[in-house]
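Why Insertion element IS402-like domain-containing protein? Reviewers of the renewal asked for a concrete example.
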Amino acid sequence: MAGGKGQISDELRDKIAPLIPEHKTRHPPCTRRKRVDNRAAMNAIFFVPSTACQWNALNATGIGSSASAPRRFRERRDAGVFGRFWQNRAG
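Here is what the prediction returned.
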């Protein structure tokens, strides 16, 4: 990771950002917390495998939420974001 502690590089963010589908909120905005921004979520997602940190330990690191990060990972995995990212890198 290029930036500071747990920060993905601008270059990596710029390659992944177009692959992330737009989020469609299912709840009225007043009923829940504000959604973690995409960059912060990606920082946490890439931090976990690069450090062998467990999802449930993320809160203690200050990198991200131990609830939001794995949820966002699953959303992106299910949407094929990581598969398309690796295909683009290989091709």
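The first helix runs from residue 10 to 16. This is the kind of structural detail the renewal will allow us to pursue systematically.
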